[in-house]
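Worked example 4.2. Below are the chains of a multi-component assembly; read each line carefully before continuing.
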Amino acid sequence: MIERIIIAGSGGQGVMLLGKVLAQTAMLEGKQVTWFPAYGPEVRGGTSHCMVIISDQEIGSPYISQADTLIILNRPSLERFKGKLKKNGILILNSSLAAIDKYAKMQVLSFPFTDIAIKIGNIKVANMAALGCFAAAKKIIKVKNILKVFKSIAPAGNLEILKINQQALEEGQKLNHG
Amino acid sequence: MEKIFKRGESLYDVATHYCPGCGHGIAHRLVAEAVDSLGIREKTIGVAPVGCAVVAYDYWNFDCSEAAHGRALAVATGIKRVHPEKVVFTYQGDGDLAAIGTNETIHAANRGENLSVVFINNAVYGMTGGQLAPTTLLGQKTATSIEGRTKKAHGYPLKISEMLALLPGVCYIERVSLENPQEVLKAKRAIKQAFENQINNLGFSLVEVLSPCPTYWGLSPKESLDWIKLVMRKEFPLGRIK
Amino acid sequence: MAKTKVLLSGNEAIAQGAIQAGCTFYAGYPITPQNELIAYMAKYLPASGAVKGQAARVFIQAESELAAINMVYGASAAGARAMTSSSSPGISLKQEGISYLAGSQLPAVIVNIMRGGPGLGNIAPAQSDYFQATRGGGHGDYHVIVLAPASAQEAYDLTQSGFDLADKYRTPVMILGDGVLGQMMEPVKLSSRKIKTPPVKSWALCGCAGRKPNIAKSFFLREGALEEFNLKLQKNYQIIQQKEQRFEGLFLSDAKVILVAYGTMARIAKSAISQLRNAGKQVGLIRPISLWPFPERAFQIKNNRVKYLVLELSYGQMLQDVRLAVNGRQQVEFLGRSGGGILSQEQIIDKVKKIL
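Applying the procedure described above to all three chains together yields the following structure tokens:
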């Protein structure tokens, strides 16, 4: 098994964190994993992306030229990365901020992650709704292990943050069953 | 016969390599005497510069390090941070401290590194053959300012001690001279003060020593001492700066 | 945290490896793509446990790379396990200090997370400082030991080896990575052993109580003295060349084409090899881990029909060492890219097919 995921959005949407949580969960499950960020001079704004590879075997290049899955949180990122999806790959798209009209040879899971996050009460957790959607679609990592990772990285004692991220994750997971 | 004056333990009994009338020999001795009078020889670490005093460690009987040209205060920072309980000092010329090493000098001072600096200002590069120094006086002839230093071509003599005095990390700066025995005694007291400040954890101390270079001033040793008194001191006035 | 794996970038793994190795002094200056290293040291070095026989751990953000390497010179002369890190343009500035360290026989670990050059270049991964790293880099007749990790785990492990080698041979050691290695996060198994006690250094500057003064210096003015010293250095280098060659070999027994690559480039080569092997192609890999000493031993392959393909993120620097090691016995081919582009698996496969 090898799964190559490109995660992209605007700076501040939690793209890097999404990738890190994904990578940490895969590590927790005993898989090989690499997380590789774009490290340009942009700090806020602009497009931001990272590449995560999960595998049973030693991973060669951490750079992805053909992705199995794209997780895209805004429109400029869609334009930039849609060409990197392999044939019949999955595009997980944040429909609150981007839309795709015509598509062929890809599976599109388009949901309003930002709106969902706003409804939950914190726009910043759109990334975790997208992660929940990925977990349900791909079944490579278990949601209960994502929750373990949340607990290990959340600021000590901040239960509110933990709770709202968990809620977003679960909402995202449900979407895909509907 | 009773011996009433002797070489201190911190100074080796070796022949000097310095030119006749050079101030380095006196300054080396003052450093050694300060170390001995404070009884710190076994906990002192000196940092020698690049310049005429490059082999200062051949004269001092305590641990010493070389430093690349201008980097003495970076090297001293490394040593002092590893051994905060030792007494660490640098001995640097004007080119080393105020030209190629200005950045290291300013930042060590600004960090308030608990170090002592003996800064030898002889207004010229000695080791390389008498070229223009940052402290060369206006009108002073050197190998690279043949007609004398001009404002237009070379800028002004750099008063680095006055500049450093502005920094809050600096606790003590004094300018002294080796022009006569009274001034030498003052220089000795100032150098000792710089070491005492470090022992008392007061921060960065620097003693600027106006020192003769008869060879590259084109003067006799006696004339050189007069030149410090009559000419150099006008640009670089003596006394406590901070 | 002891036995479990943690997700660390190569930069962080190097920093954590240094802490584990008993590094007590770090000075550095920010530059991309190694900023995570200096930030990790700022956060964790002073707070890490005491090292037996050493003063408190010290972190300094220096005013320049020049100052940083010279602080390391002072700290090393004072007996500490000392480190600095930077990326290509900053490493050029440090060369003065590295030459002085070598000339004063002072141990230190210097990390170069390479980026594109020449000049300010860019911040993309590159391997174009190979010449600078393996030929000494500064002035004078010297070498530094150069270790090239290809994963975060190896970055952690080799940094620790680096400190041991530096002390053993009294020489600077360089950890040579690239932007990908520095930035990429991977699981790292941290050592559960207690932090090492660095060796006692009788030559260190710590005050001359009960002994003759120690001098740290690289200046040998007396006639014949420098030659004598340089011969001593050369002898040390010969021992290092005999004892410290490191490499990884893959499928060397049946390979018709052997890829030669280090660091990130070797990872991409491995991906290409697994794809080629699946297609029945007999391709192998030599991955130099020590770049100096260069692992010449790996190239003692008898079959004259074997071909080597050197892969680098440069326009052919390690290539010269491979040619020297092969010494005309076999054909040596080259594929390289530099300036920001990373050589892809597909480009490697195309080239191999042409050569086979």
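Take a moment to check your reading of the output against the notes. The longest strand of chain A covers residues 85-94. The domain at 2-175 of chain A is CATH 3.40.920.10 (Pyruvate-ferredoxin Oxidoreductase; domain 3).
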